[in-house]
Amino acid sequence: MSLLTVSHLSRSFGGVKAVQDVSLQIPPGSLTALIGPNGAGKTTLFSLISGFTAPDAGTVVFDGKDITGQAPHLSAKLGLTRTFQIVQPFTGQTVRENIAVGAHLQHAKRTEALSEAETVAERVGLASQLDKPAKDLTVAGRKRLELARALATQPKLLLLDEVLAGLNPQEIQEMLPVVRGIVDGGVTVLMIEHVMQAVMNLAEHVWVLAQGQLIAEGSPGSVTQNPQVIEAYLGHGTAARLRQAKQDSV
Amino acid sequence: MKDLRAVALFTTLIALVPFLTQSGVVLNFVMMALYASLLAQAWNILGGYGGQFSFGHSLFFGTGAYVQAIAQMQAGLSPWLALLLAAASGAAVGGFIGSVSFRYGLKGSYFALVTLAFAEVFRIFALSVPFTGAGVGLMLPLKESASNMQFADKAGFVWLILGLVTIALLVTVWLRHSRFGAYLQAVRDNEDAARAIGVNPFKIKLWAAILSGGLMAAGGAFYVQIFHYIDPGLAYGPATSVEALVGAIVGGMGTLWGPLLGAVVLSVLGDVTRNMFGQLPGINMVIYGCVLILIMLFLPRGISGLGASCRSIFGRKKDRS
Amino acid sequence: MFDLSILFTSVLNGITTGAVYALIALGLTLIYGVLHIINFAHGASLMVALYGVYFLKEQLGIDPYAALPVMVTVMFGLGYSLQRGIINRASHGKDENILLVTLGLSIVLENLALLFFKSDTRSIDTSYTLATITVGPAMIALPKIVAFAGALAVSAVLLAIMRYTDLGRAIRAVAKEKHGARLMGIDVDHVYAMSFGIGLACLGAAACFLLPAYYVNPLVGNGFVLIAFTIVVLGGMGSFVGALIGGLLIGVVESIGGLYLGESLGQVGIFVIFIAVLLFRPQGLFGANA
How confident is residue B59, by pLDDT bands cut at 50, 70 and 90? Predict the structure, then answer.
């Protein structure tokens, strides 16, 4: 039984079809990825799934319940949480307090939420910065904070929107095992990513979105060889040119 | 915890003041400073902790004042009961404004404008309706006794307002150490991020408005008890709205002691100006306006922010790990 | 219920008043459209301008209409310096701060006026203050007709500036995309200050047209500011045409409301519209931004 089933989801803004008839199924316990060129509609899809934007058509079924168009906080209570492409820390507060807000979904008492925040911070490697004001963190730190805050809600499904964007190679290397660790801990993860290294390394299954439509899906290896996918990223005719170049070099 | 101990210490110390001095001047200053502090603290809950700037907080103040007066004069209720009723009415109006504004997602300037507009509407209403005394206003008859909440000795008023301020402080302490408070500040700092992790912004902001309205209305009720008079301009005019927000901002929004600090500073400024310039009409407000501008220019986080800035300058040396 | 000719007069009065309201709102629209801030000091600035016109007449004998160039220039200068000197500095980049600074400015201006001028209401006497023109069954005060014409003229000038001059183009660029505009070499701070200056200059013009038909006291700004806000919101934040039409609409509503409900309750009609628009259609009738 799939944890998340998206069926024929569509959404237009003005005349632009941001998401067109997208369907996918996410099995529980998996680490999957959503890729595609810029402007493909990936973040819009996340918004539709998590309830920040209402779809024009289609349904979203999470853990057996229809959550189509439902307010984000209600979906979060059911176990579906998302992070944001542009990190959104609670700037007026410390790292610990930030994560505690997430923990409060499961713990009403302040002391419990704060101590849970410490535990989660350790999992993502922020333990040494717990009392730092969130606005003093580096980009890498903020990404971890974003992750930690979402984790603290004890989600079943975590939608990660470009959690590696803006990180240097070393920071990416440090982040990969953290994400892997989350899935090993029982959380299903769907990530939007541009960093191919992460996609190839981590993802069990990949969906490719281009101009609002799903153009391919499969294992990372097969998808990156798919001519349509190559064209979507590199332009019309590139796949043929690459093939030709390969033949010529033989 | 630390906060509770500080509040207990504060309340005990101030409660002792009427025993330490008989000076009417000192007692009056303490009473008015505490009164201003209550207003600022009420505003702070919605504005400082909630991030929703209300420019029409007199809406709740005036409602509390009128209910306090009308409940006694026309329903013959005890002023102590009237006080509860006044606070409840303020809370109800807070709920009304909150549910209407936040349901439609009003924030920032729009929210400030709506509160301003509602305060004006209430003022015009109060001007036109007989049971508020219309333009003439209402005059609370003098009848000094503790049970009538009119204390012959200023000390009584000091303790009364101290009690209300303590309640406001305790509410703020609760905000700082509860889930509700954490959610409220999260909504203030980043509403979308808060929604993503399970916070219902509408419900949270609504309750903040209710709390804020109730406390502000208590201030209005207290006002009637000391001054014995209320009219539409005093009740719903901009002066009280300004006093509340400037006090909170000068002292430091979103902090426990900021509003109290700000209110004391403004009270001192007000007294000094009155001594220098006499009872010039509007001089107080000129000072408030100038202070607001100066604070925004140089100390946007208020006086409390000074402490935090110092800590971050000096503390940085330790944090180098 | 009311005699048709009274209604007609009321509507005409409403239109002429509404035109002046529109002029006031135009300045606010420009400021909001470009700087994306609500200028809470708008009403107080109008009051200052009105006093300016008043004293120019009383002390120097300059007719309000003749004072137009002076008032427009002075108010422009005031606006430019206020924005560049105080508002820009105090905002530290945050919108809420601008809200508070302009609020502070309005408090200072209003209460300084109270201090110096007391709460006396003053008006000026000219040869034409009491003259009227007959339009059908209605008698409209001449200054109001002039105000109407003047408001339309100033609006036309403003729209022309926005559309045909380099400054207008720069303003529109900054309004749409501040960072991009800066990258193109536009001095954004200067454009902000220019916009604020033009906004207050509109008030200078409005004051010249308003005073002969109206009066001034320190609190007069309050009444106008909420009306101006209502118009800006009704017309659609940032739309000039919207502000014009909104102004006329509000003028008529106020006039007819005053007819049926008496003056103070008639004002309530405006606030009710204001609140309703904010709640149900915040982008207004013609708004670009929601």
Answer: very high
What average pLDDT does range A215-243 have in this prediction? 82
In-domain check, residue C126? no
Mean pLDDT throughout C232-247? 82
CA distance B26 to B149: 21
Among candidate residues C113, C124, C97, the one with its CA nearest the CA of residue C209: C124
Q: Per-residue confidence at B313, pLDDT binned at 50, 70, 90? A: low
First to last CA, chain A: 46
Test B109 with C99 for CB contact under 8 angstroms.
Answer: yes
- Residue C285 in any domain: the answer is no
Contact B127 C119 (CB under 8 A): no
Residue of B nearest to C107 (CA): B289
In one letter, which amino acid is A153? Answer: T
Q: Which residue among B53, B116, B293 sits closest to C104, beta carbon to beta carbon? A: B293
Position A250 confidence tier, pLDDT thresholds 50, 70, 90: low
Does the CB of B198 have a partner CB in chain A at under 8 Å?
Answer: yes
Instruction: Pick the residue of C89, C108, C226, C250 with the most B CBs within 10 A to test the interface with B by mutation.
Output: C108
Q: What is the pLDDT of residues C74-95, one digit of tens each?
A: 999 999 999 888 888 887 767 7
Out of B53, B118, B128, closest to residue C264 by CB: B128
**Number of domains chain C is built from:** 1
Residue among B182, B200, B254 minimizing CB distance to A101: B182
* Percentage of chain C modeled with pLDDT above 90: 11
Across the interface, of C104, C114, C275, the residue whose CB is closest to B281 is: C114
Amino acid at B232: P
Residues of chain A contacting residue B182, judged by C-beta atoms under 8 Å apart: 97, 100-101, 104, 110, 113
User: Is A145's pLDDT higher than 90?
Assistant: yes
Long-range pairs for C116-121: beta carbons < 8 A, 24 or more residues apart: C117/C51, C117/C217, C117/C218, C118/B281, C118/C218, C119/B281, C119/C217, C119/C218, C119/C219, C120/C217, C121/C215, C121/C216, C121/C217
pLDDT in tens, B179-232: 999 999 999 999 999 999 999 999 999 999 999 999 999 999 999 999 999 999
Q: Which residue of B has its CA nearest to A75?
A: B198
Q: Do A103 and A117 form a contact (C-beta atoms < 8 A)?
A: yes
Strand partners, A159: A82, A190
How far apart CA B209 and CA B204 sit, in angstroms, is 9
Whether residue B95 lies inside any domain: the answer is: yes
Asked if residue C289 is part of any domain, the answer here is no
In a domain, B265, yes or no: no
CA separation for the pair A159, A162 (Å, rounded): 10
CATH number of the domain to which C226 belongs: 1.10.3470
From the list B183, B196, B319, the residue facing A72 with the nearest CB is B196
**Does the beta carbon of B195 lie under 8 angstroms from any beta carbon of chain A?**
yes
How many domains, in total, are found in chain B?
A: 1
- C24 within some domain: yes
Q: What pLDDT is attached to residue C289? A: 45
CB contact under 8 Å between A101 and B188, yes or no, is: no
Which domain range does residue C196 map to? 4-119+131-280
Find the domain containing B51 and state its range.
2-237
> Which DSSP symbol is given to B132?
G
The Cα of B254 is separated from the nearest Cα of chain C by a number of Å equal to 14
Residue B45 CB contacts under 8 Å (≥ 6 apart), including other chains: B171, B172, B175, B208, B211, B212, B215
pLDDT at B316 over 60: no
**Residue B320: its pLDDT value, please?**
41
Neighbours of chain B (3+ CB pairs under 8 A): A, C
The answer to whether residue B144 is domain-embedded is yes
Mean model confidence pLDDT for chain B: 88
**Are B205 and B50 spatial neighbours (Cβ–Cβ below 8 Å)?**
yes
- The whole-model pTM stands at 0.88
